[in-house]
What we know:
By secondary structure, the chain is an alpha/beta fold. It has helices spanning 3-6, 12-39, 55-65, 86-101, 121-142, 151-162, 173-181, 188-193, 249-262, 276-283, and strands spanning 47-51, 74-77, 111-117, 165-172, 203-208, 222-224, 232-233, 237-238, 242-245. Helix 2 (12-39) packs across helix 3, helix 4 (86-101) crosses helix 5 and helix 5 packs across helix 6. The mean pLDDT is 84.
Amino acid sequence: MDVENRNEKYSREDLESFVNGIISASKSMRYIHSRSQKTLQEIDNPYYVVNLHGSLPLFDVLTIVDQDIDVDRAVYFPGSSRIQNSSDILRYCFENFLWEKQYETDKTSPLFSIDEVVGGHSVERVVNAYNSAIRRIATQNLRGTERRKRDIEEVSFDLKQQFPLYIFGIRDLARFRNRIKNRENMNKRYLELSNPRNENRVIYEFPVKKIITMDDPDFELIEFKHPTSSGWKPSSGYYPKIDSLKFSHYYMDLLHDIARIVGVNPETVDPSRARIRTHCERYSKKPAYN
Length: 290
């Protein structure tokens, strides 16, 4: 099939590069999980943290190229920079999710997140939200005990061991080169966390010629009810609510093209949206213990 003639939004070369990048991310996820199984006594299947907007299309593609991905282990966070107070919201999401899950299992459950990378700022926001949430939960766990504040670091470390975060960044090379050309530096924190020489590395990069789904209205899947204002309540925080979920024919054509490339029947492609609305509202609420 000549993909370039079928859809004017991307060439065959763009599509193959995009798919290969996500296939490489999938292989890295498998490697990290298998490595953990060899070093840890009790390890569970990973959770997939899907940040709305940008991560959702990437996760859809991931589930096509890797049919073993358990979509029931996906958790959807409204982490978009398009909504007000997005950093606080993302921290709330991690707090609520990890607070809930720490009592459900004593196994190690990795958190895998696939995300877009241009300058690294959105990925840094995810890491900061995760780290801040871990410390807040550790502080809460110590309340009512005789342990001192310095023990927060120890409890935080244990939580990170139980729920280690790994981010698989799909880097858009065209946009990255443009940033270098304009002398815009990559986020320094991102560079530190993605450095292969860093023993505490949490970000793994996978370059592609073009992130096809990025910043194209025809590939946008979510519309929020309160994107810029009016949703903030001082007593309880900001509750992002999804106004609509949509699938354009351009988007479904893209998923079908990807299925054909990797040898999957396009008719079986059915992106799951069952829990997006409930997760969005459930996890973005201000934690009950605050």
